[in-house]
């Protein structure tokens, strides 16, 4: 049995503005309608795979669960890391969770990879199974087609062969351009995908041998953990005692039983706009298009619009990535794509909301987005999913007016409870205790108009909440 372990806690700042701390890249759709995380889950669903273990954090717990459920994965076990400590403690924690089945396999997968061929993925996993069942720690690598400086590399003892596991000579961190060119020439290097396969007992033995100090805090965090609404929360104080370190540094670079299996497919560790361009670009002009865009006399360019009401036009562009969203636009020379994280740092320093906030804010009951914000009023569009229930709350500084535009809302205002259908409305006076919920079978949409002296999201006095969120003041 193979137990998928999905690592789902990254932020992806080099893909700003599509990826932000409030809504990182793994939950976004870059190809088709499914997110990268959903594609990853889909890849390991079905015969031969156990229920996936998903490691994420408190902020994304409902999003991870909901996106899994949306594609029919109802049995994912979501483990919440109180602190993001890199892959070393995360993978060890999953292995300790599976300690009772030492001969079963763990397949560790980042949640932010683009893979075009599931057949090639399956073939690589099958080849890795043979080596893993023989006691090897298997790393999956991709044959490089360019001198990429944004990836780590696996150095093999000989050129890789499809379907075969080859002993590893060394791990190499992200190289400079000249070193990357030399690696390409040698033919003994693969890009390090960060995907691994090993028996539970073998990886625990490797941690015991090479990173024993991590075991006690991770084991204690599991013992102190508790279940909450379908999630498993690790013990906060215990987990914080573990060192923040990658599995490569902690274990894989030190172990003598590591092999690499080549992954023969179009693959992308989606870390920056230039890597997405290299994956999507077509034709002699090498232009990558996504969404409502038009390219005129452009070459080596990526154009991406994420708003259905915004049409992005590029004219005479060369080596440019242009990404347009409703609240932010990025235009960057492709040679500087790896430096986009500096944009986020500059925006944060200037207290620009777009540095981290996403135009659509996701909540366990659905989502909302601000359509207009001015002095003393704000207009929002709100979606409440079937069965979704907002907290019972009141506001100190604002009143609200709700207009249902689709579906049915059950509205509580103080002691009055009413059902509102399309084109019906409710007024929430300042200070009134109120709640909104969707009792129907389809999503409910409404327009909310807020008026008052202060319109911040922290102006909430919360009295009850079915999602166990902390009271807000």
How is the topology of this model organized?
Layout: E1 2-7, H1 36-43, E2 53-57, H2 61-70, E3 77-81, H3 87-97, E4 105-110, E5 113-115, H4 118-133, E6 137-142, E7 153-156, E8 166-172, H5 177-186, E9 189-199, H6 200-210, H7 215-223, E10 226-228, E11 231-233, H8 236-239, H9 247-252, E12 258-262, E13 267-269, H10 273-280, E14 287-290, E15 293-296, E16 301-305, E17 312-315, E18 320-324, E19 329-333, H11 341-349, E20 360-363, E21 366-374, E22 377-384, E23 392-394, E24 398-406, E25 409-413, E26 416-420, E27 425-428, E28 434-437, E29 444-452, E30 461-464
Parallel strand pairs: 1-2, 1-4, 2-3, 3-11, 6-12, 14-16, 15-17, 16-18
Antiparallel strand pairs: 4-9, 5-13, 6-9, 7-8, 7-9, 8-12, 10-11, 18-19, 20-21, 21-22, 22-29, 23-30, 24-27, 24-29, 25-26, 25-28
Helix pairs in contact: 3-7
H/I helix tally: 11
| Computed Rg | 24 Å
CATH homologous superfamily annotation of the largest domain: Spore Coat Polysaccharide Biosynthesis Protein SpsA, Chain A
Kindly report the oligomeric state of this protein: single chain
What is the 3D form? globular
**Second rung of CATH, namely the architecture of the largest domain:** Alpha-Beta Complex
Strand content: 25-35%
> What would the average pLDDT be, to the nearest integer?
93
Unreliable stretches, pLDDT < 50, 5 or more residues? none
Q: What's the CATH first level of the largest domain?
A: Alpha Beta
Structure class: alpha/beta
């Amino acid at each position: 049995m193979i137990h998928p372990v999905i690592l789902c806690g990254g932020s992806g700042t080099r893909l700003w503005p599509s990826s932000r701390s409030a809504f990182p890249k793994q939950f976004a759709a870059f190809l088709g309608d499914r997110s990268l995380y959903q594609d990853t889950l889909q890849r390991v669903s079905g015969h031969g795979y156990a229920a996936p273990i998903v490691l994420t954090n408190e902020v994304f717990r409902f999003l991870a669960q909901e996106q899994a459920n949306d594609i029919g994965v109802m049995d994912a076990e979501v483990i919440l890391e109180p602190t993001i400590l890199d892959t070393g403690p995360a993978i060890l924690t999953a292995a300790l969770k599976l300690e009772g089945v030492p001969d079963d396999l763990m397949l560790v997968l980042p949640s932010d990879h683009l893979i075009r061929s599931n057949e090639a993925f399956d073939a690589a996993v099958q080849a890795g199974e043979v080596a893993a069942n023989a006691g090897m720690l298997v790393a999956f690598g991709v044959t490089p087609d360019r001198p990429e400086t944004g990836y780590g590399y696996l150095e093999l003892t000989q050129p890789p062969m499809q379907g075969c596991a080859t002993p590893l000579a060394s791990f190499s961190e992200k190289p400079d351009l000249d070193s990357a060119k030399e690696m390409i020439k040698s033919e003994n290097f693969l890009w390090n995908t960060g995907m691994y396969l090993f028996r539970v007992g073998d990886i625990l033995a490797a941690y015991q041998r090479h990173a024993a100090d991590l075991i006690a805090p991770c084991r204690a965090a599991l013992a102190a953990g508790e279940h909450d609404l379908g999630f498993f929360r690790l013990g906060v104080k215990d987990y914080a005692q573990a060192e923040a370190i990658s599995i490569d540094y902690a274990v894989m670079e030190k172990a003598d039983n590591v092999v690499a299996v080549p992954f023969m497919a179009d693959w992308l560790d989606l870390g920056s706009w230039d890597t997405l361009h290299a994956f999507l670009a077509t034709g002699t002009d090498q232009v990558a298009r996504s969404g409502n865009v038009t390219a005129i006399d452009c070459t080596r360019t990526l154009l991406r619009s994420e708003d259905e009401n915004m049409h992005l036009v590029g004219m005479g562009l060369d080596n440019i990535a242009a990404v347009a969203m409703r609240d932010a636009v990025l235009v960057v020379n492709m040679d500087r794509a790896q430096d986009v994280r500096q944009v986020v740092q500059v925006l944060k320093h200037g207290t620009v909301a777009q540095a981290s906030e996403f135009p659509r804010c996701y909540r366990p009951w659905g989502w909302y987005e601000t359509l207009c914000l001015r002095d003393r009023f704000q207009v929002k569009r709100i979606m409440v999913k079937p069965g979704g229930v907002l907290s019972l709350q009141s506001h100190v500084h604002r009143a609200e007016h709700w207009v249902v535009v689709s579906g049915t809302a059950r509205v509580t205002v103080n002691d009055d409870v009413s059902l509102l259908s399309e084109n019906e409305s409710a007024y929430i006076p300042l200070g009134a205790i109120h709640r909104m919920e969707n009792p129907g079978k389809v999503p409910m949409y409404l327009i909310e108009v807020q008026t008052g002296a202060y319109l911040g999201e922290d102006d909430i006095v919360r009295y009850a909440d079915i999602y166990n969120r902390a009271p807000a003041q």
